[in-house]
Specification:
Layout (H helix, E strand, L loop, with lengths): L8 H11 L6 E5 L12 E2 L9 E2 L3 E4 L9 E8 L13 E5 L11 E4 L3 E3 L5 E4 L9 E2 L10 E3 L7 H9 L4 E5 L3 E7 L3 E2 L10 E2 L2 H12 L2 E8 L3 H14 L2 E5 L10 H8 L1 E5 L3 E2 L5 E5 L2 E6 L3 H20 L9 E5 L10 E10 L5 E5 L9 H4 L3 E5 L11 E6 L6
Parallel strand pairs: 5-6, 13-16, 13-17, 14-15, 17-21, 19-23, 22-24
Antiparallel strand pairs: 1-12, 2-11, 3-10, 4-6, 4-7, 5-9, 8-9, 18-20, 20-21, 22-26, 23-24, 23-25, 25-26
The structure holds ligand LQZAQKY5 and molybdate ion (MOO).
Length: about 400
């Protein structure tokens, strides 16, 4: 059933991830510039968080042994966030305390305001309920302890990470240099958007799609434009890209047609590790190297270019960029309809999934699965991932769905 000249998707990914090594250069960036950057070494806390025992509630700081139901305590002072109470507290005394305020010495609990009754001038309270030691106290270091690792190497910094770093007072972080990735498209028929189409011409959509996906990845992009189906021009562009780029991504010209020169150019100048993957769309994907620059030859059909960028190239570029913990979200969903599928290649069908009234995930086809039809990629919110050797899917069968990654949204 399988075509031996096509490499299974998992093997293609493994091959690339084992071949490509992570960038070694690092740099220091300020916190305000760090969003989406990848941490080059772990961040350990230089503080205890919280930095001191403090109150979780508005109420009264008390000695739990004295604050028994019915007992009366004298209010000897006030502690608020930013305004600690530093004096001694006499026997059967307590301190009015606000949320976030440091816990004064010699008390061990906070009784919430609702469990007390204050006299007219609020100089005394009556305890309405017992309180136990440590009640309503947020202990020093209970969130993060001094020295604890808070963010691991290889983490792509999220807004939450940025907030966490700020809470620790960290203003600079060590990150990997961003990879520099060149993109060009090939095809005599291609016209840049804004131009005028002559007979037999189409607009170059792939380059814009790929550049946008790369921008979302946070890499440095180099737009090398559109090239004619010309071996010399393509060879020159590939050589130019090796001067300064970590990787070059092309679209088109990797199939078997008379004008498919990209792969030929790479074979002459560098080396092709593999060509043709058992996936649909995306079969004529090529991977190789040109001097120190990695090469990803994506197919020309727009959906095949998008799928191979998302499913094959993205994980490898993340690895190149230093990102660890690269995972793909995948769920089981019930096929709402019959899905065509032939054994031989793993399908990444464009689907639309949603939850039905019972909370069950249902998925249906987004329409045409032709790799030339970009509009159904727009109408989809997931890929329906069907294994290489399986046949069609009947309505009601369970299938794997991959909700679109941030690159496609
Ligand atoms: N005899 C065979 N023919 C084809 C095979 C095959 O195995 N045997 N594979 C098919 C598959 S699968 C795909 S996908 C395409 C990929 O071909 P290429 O990568 O060589 O791409 P082109 O031939 O240059 O173009 C294919 C198609 O895509 C359009 N295109 C190209 N670049 C762009 C762009 N930047 N923006 C928008 N559209 C683009 C191009 O006009 C063609 O229509 O080959 C099949 N053929
Ligand atoms: O990559 Mo092609 O899509 O399978 O037409």
């Amino acid at each position: 059933m399988s075509n031996p000249s096509l490499m299974p998707v998992e093997q293609a990914l493994e091959n690339m991830l084992n071949t490509v090594s992570t960038i070694t250069d690092k740099e220091t960036v300020e916190l305000s510039e760090a969003l989406g950057r990848i941490l080059n070494r772990p961040v350990n806390s230089t503080l205890d968080v919280p930095g001191y025992d403090n109150s979780a509630m508005d109420g009264y700081a008390v000695r739990s042994s004295e604050a028994k139901k019915g007992s009366r305590l004298k209010v000897v002072g006030v502690a608020a966030a930013g305004h600690p109470y530093n004096d001694a507290i006499p026997e059967n005394g307590c301190v009015r305390i606000m949320t976030g305020a440091p816990i004064p010495d010699s008390v061990d609990a906070v009784i919430i305001q609702e469990n007390t009754e204050a006299n007219q001038d609020k100089s005394e309270i009556t305890v309405l309920q017992n309180v136990a030691e440590s009640d309503n106290i947020r202990r020093r270091g209970s969130d993060i302890a001094l020295g604890e690792e808070v963010i691991a190497t290889g983490t792509r910094l999220s807004p939450v990470d940025i907030g966490l770093l700020a809470s620790l007072g960290i203003e600079e972080v060590a990150v990997y240099r961003r990879p520099k990735i060149a993109v060009f498209s090939t095809g005599d028929e291609l016209v840049a958007p804004g131009g005028k189409l002559k007979s037999g011409q189409i607009f170059d959509s792939n380059r814009y799609l790929l550049l946008a996906m790369l921008e979302k990845m946070g890499v440095e992009v180099v737009n090398l434009g559109r090239l004619n189906d010309d071996l010399e021009a393509i060879s020159q562009a590939l050589q130019d890209a090796t001067q300064s780029c970590d990787a070059v991504i092309t679209s088109g010209g990797v199939s078997v047609g008379d004008a498919d020169f990209t792969k030929t150019a790479l074979e002459q100048l560098g080396s092709v590790s593999f060509w043709k993957v058992a996936m649909k769309p995306g079969k004529p994907f090529a991977f190789g190297k040109l001097k120190d620059t990695w090469f990803f030859g994506l197919p020309g059909n727009p959906v095949a270019a998008a799928v191979t960028m998302d499913q094959l190239t993205q994980p490898v570029l993340k690895h190149l960029a230093g990102e660890k913990h690269i995972s793909t979200e995948s769920y089981q969903a019930t096929a709402a309809e019959y899905l065509k599928k032939r054994p031989g290649r793993a399908d990444f069908q464009r689907g639309w999934f949603e939850q039905d009234n019972n909370g069950q995930l249902k998925v249906s086809s987004a329409g045409s699965q032709s790799s030339a039809v970009l509009s159904t990629l727009k109408r989809a919110n997931c890929f329906i991932r069907l294994e290489q050797d399986r046949g069609p899917v009947n309505a009601g069968e369970e299938v794997a769905i991959l909700p679109f990654s941030s690159l496609l949204r």
